[in-house]
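Example for tutorial group B:
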């Protein structure tokens, strides 16, 4: 609200108040954020882990982002910002050295000091093969982590790391309390301790997670307000979108990402505010294990990819609210997005590739998916479409964590019908999904050309060079049908009008950040 000049009139205070009321009636006046309150958020996925380094599901970020800070924090465009980071500054004295100067006076929720030793502990933990850290493949460029002094850390790199700053803004750069990791051991995943705006309070499997305000949090809003505003967060597990929508309408929860079928209903209801994020995910994709029969045959993978009608899936499973994919695993809106020749719906081509693959009459195979209200009907549609060219599909449904483990680790099916989180830094998907030893490369087959492309893409500091490299990566991945995205997602989020600060909700990966929300 603009400051008005003082009026020198009898009863002036009444006149000033009247002018202020009139001014706010003529144009919106933002209320000052108010501290306090309990936000109840509905969410459909149970966490695989609350440890950022070990979680296997992109959905875990809805939980851990509330409790952890990163060595490098980034804004909604994935641009690194010192005011959001545990490092107040960083520099590169040469292409293979990164020096970070750390924020002083920060403590983990258990009272442990955040310092250079803590950073070294976290990065060494990721690099240790015994940890089994999800982001390890992207961090192997780090040759050594050196403590320069109590609040200065040096990374000695094996090669230039153009992807480095962005990767440190993701789960690999999240800082865990060394004390808590050592104390809890294998149980740490559900006893997380970070430096973030909220502290872990309780996790009840299959039901809810609660977090409470970190009273000593270092972060502030752009206006200089102490964060967070909320006293408490409860993330309630509600898998059924219909139940979730009903809970929103009944006032039983205060925030949720809704099913596309409910968009029209909530957009017409003035009691609610809706925010959206286009390209906030890959709503549906087919991932293939290129070393597991029958999908070890490239022509049979291509046959499957050409038999699937993405437009029909979007209309039937997503009510036409999402975007048919025309590129690879990087959605539109980011510098790496590009369109290259890719498998599109064409039954004639699908049958031609069946012939080339030696299975003109089709074959039978298993397909894994997880218990999502949109993925299950999407997968049923895929099954029906493949039946048109003689391919019989046996669908196996699990929860998201189990499904992911069964496809990528125990390799129990050659195809995974799933969704994927948004990762604007291309090395995340390239290293983890396409690199020969990447965690999310189900086949783990050697691919020297791909490995070299990924190495060059991660090391270059020039965006044009990187984009050309990732275009070639897309040509290989889509052409050989390793990962074939069908639908780019649009994230629709609804909250009652009492929930304020919704413009700050989305992080760069379309996950929620709750530290600047407040209750009116």
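The residue assignment follows.
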């Amino acid at each position: 609200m603009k400051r008005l000049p003082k009026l020198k009139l009898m009863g002036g205070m009444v006149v000033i108040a009247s002018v202020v009321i009139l001014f706010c009636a003529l144009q919106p006046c933002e209320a000052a954020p108010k501290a306090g309150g309990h936000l109840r958020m509905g969410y459909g996925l149970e966490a695989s882990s609350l440890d950022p380094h070990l979680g296997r599901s992109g959905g875990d970020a809805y939980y851990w982002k509330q409790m952890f800070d990163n060595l490098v924090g980034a804004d909604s465009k994935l641009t690194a910002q010192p005011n959001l980071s545990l490092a107040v500054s960083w520099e590169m004295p040469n292409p293979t050295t990164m020096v970070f100067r750390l924020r002083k006076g920060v403590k983990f929720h258990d009272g442990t000091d955040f310092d250079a030793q803590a950073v070294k502990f976290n990065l060494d933990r990721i690099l240790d093969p015994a940890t089994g850290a999800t982001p390890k493949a992207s961090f192997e460029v780090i040759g050594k982590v050196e403590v320069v002094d109590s609040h200065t850390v040096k990374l000695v790199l094996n090669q230039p790391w153009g992807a480095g700053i962005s990767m440190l803004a993701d789960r690999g750069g999240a800082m865990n309390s060394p004390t808590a990791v050592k104390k809890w051991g294998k149980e740490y995943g559900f006893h997380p301790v970070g430096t973030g705006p909220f502290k872990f309070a309780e996790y009840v499997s299959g039901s809810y997670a609660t977090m409470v305000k970190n009273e000593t949090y270092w972060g502030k809003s752009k206006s200089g307000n102490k964060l967070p505003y909320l006293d408490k967060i409860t993330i309630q597990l509600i898998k059924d979108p219909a139940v979730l929508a009903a809970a929103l309408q009944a006032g039983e929860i205060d925030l949720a990402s809704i099913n596309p079928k409910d968009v029209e209903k909530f957009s017409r209801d003035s009691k609610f505010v809706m925010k959206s994020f286009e390209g906030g995910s890959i709503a549906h994709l087919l991932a293939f294990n290129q070393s597991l029969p029958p999908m070890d045959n490239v022509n049979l993978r291509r046959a499957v990819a050409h038999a699937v009608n993405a437009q029909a899936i979007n209309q039937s499973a997503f009510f036409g609210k999402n975007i048919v994919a025309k590129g690879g695993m990087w959605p539109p809106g980011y510098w790496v997005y590009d369109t290259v020749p890719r498998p599109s719906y064409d039954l004639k081509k699908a049958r031609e590739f069946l012939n080339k693959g030696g299975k003109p009459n089709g074959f039978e195979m298993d397909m894994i998916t997880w218990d999502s209200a949109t993925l299950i009907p999407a997968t049923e549609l895929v099954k029906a479409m493949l039946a048109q060219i003689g391919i019989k599909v046996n669908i196996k449904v699990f929860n998201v964590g189990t499904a992911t483990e069964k496809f990528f680790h125990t390799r129990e099916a050659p195809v995974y019908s799933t969704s994927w989180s948004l990762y604007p830094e291309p090395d995340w998907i390239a290293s983890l999904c396409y690199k020969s030893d990447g965690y999310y490369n189900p086949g783990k087959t050697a691919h020297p050309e791909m490995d070299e492309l990924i190495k060059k893409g991660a090391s270059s500091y020039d965006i044009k060079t990187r984009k050309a490299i990732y275009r070639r990566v897309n040509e290989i991945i889509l052409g050989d049908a390793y990962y074939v995205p069908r639908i780019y997602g649009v994230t629709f989020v609804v909250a009652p009008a009492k929930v304020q600060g919704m413009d700050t909700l989305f992080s760069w990966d379309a996950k929620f950040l709750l530290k600047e929300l407040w209750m009116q």
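Residues 463-479 form the longest helix (17 residues). Compare this with the pattern of hydrophobic and polar residues in the output above.
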